[in-house]
Write a structure and sequence with these properties.
293 residues; Rossmann fold; 2 domains
Length: 293
């Protein structure tokens, strides 16, 4: 799959990074991707700025820290992540900015894989600041979720069912193309869902305007989904439902037992609205990993 020609994996040497690295390795092996591990060093004035030390001492501390980071990066899963298709890079600066910078320097077929922060019942309230910034600024797809830390082998990434959520805005064809290609690659079941948004306030007795409004929306959305399916050239099940998008999408992901959720991001049109509203919530609450295209 050419859209996964390059995988960029930021690492901070934590347990989250270990799980994400194994997940990235499995995907790279499946798609023949080049895998780049990136570690970003905090600038010395930020990392050691609180210490009352002179410039020469600051430089020496940072030199030692840089050498240590290089050793750690070279040793990070060295036996598992080896070969000509694996690169290890260290950059200095703001982590999110450098991740996006490097991704944009690569060809178009780049995917960033990042775990989110948070565990257990609290994970849905937390989206790591670096992940949030990357999601906001990156032009390429971002594959994320707490779940990627749990998969350690290719066999544990089944991809039997894929859910694609579209808002029928300008990004929808690209989003559906991505989901379709993944479904074809894995022979997975594909379900496409569109949420029409919450219904208007309760009408007066005898007023069926809300019912007619929802029916018209479903009809229009259904026609557009059929057009999109013809455009991408793959038959898929599709569902048009009224309701708040995050809830509709996550309920469908649970019902389908989806192994992956594909959504669009960055479009100001459609009921999804801007990324920082619904897409963030979908990523936080999804019961499976999310690729935001």
């Amino acid at each position: 799959m050419r859209d996964l020609a390059k995988i960029l994996l930021p690492v901070d040497f934590s347990e989250r990074s270990v799980g994400a690295a194994r997940y990235a390795k499995a995907l790279a092996a499946r798609f023949g991707s080049e895998l780049t591990l990136l570690h970003v060093l905090t600038p010395p004035q930020l990392e050691f700025g609180a210490l009352d030390i002179g410039g020469s001492m600051l430089s020496e501390l940072y030199r030692c820290r840089s050498e240590q980071a290089r050793r750690e990066l070279d040793a990070f899963l060295a036996s598992e992540l080896a070969g000509p298709n694996v690169r290890r890079i260290i950059l200095e600066g703001d982590p999110a900015s450098k991740i996006v910078e490097l991704a944009h320097a690569f060809p178009d077929q780049t995917v960033i894989i990042m775990p989110t922060h948070g565990y257990g019942p609290f994970r849905r309230f937390i989206l790591g600041s670096n992940t949030a910034k990357v999601l906001h600024d990156a032009d390429c797809p971002v594959w994320t979720g707490v779940h990627i830390e749990e998969a350690t082998t290719l066999g544990s990434i089944p991809f039997r069912s894929i859910l694609c959520a579209v808002d029928l805005g300008p990004q929808s064809s690209k989003t559906l193309c991505w989901a379709t290609r993944l479904a074809q690659e894995f022979g997975a079941r594909l379900l496409v869902v569109h949420a029409t948004g919450a219904a208007p306030d309760a009408p007066e007795p005898g007023d069926d305007s809300a019912v007619r409004w929802q029916a018209a929306l479903r009809k229009s959305a259904g026609e557009e989904l059929l057009r999109l399916q013809k455009f991408v050239g793959m038959e898929a099940e599709f569902s048009v439902e009224a309701g708040e998008p995050t809830k509709v999408i996550c309920v469908n992901a649970e019902r389908l037992r989806a192994d992956l959720l594909v959504i669009g991001r960055g479009s100001a049109a459609g009921v999804f609205g801007r990324l920082r509203t619904n897409a963030y919530a979908i990523i936080r609450e999804s019961p499976c990993p999310v690729v935001s295209v």
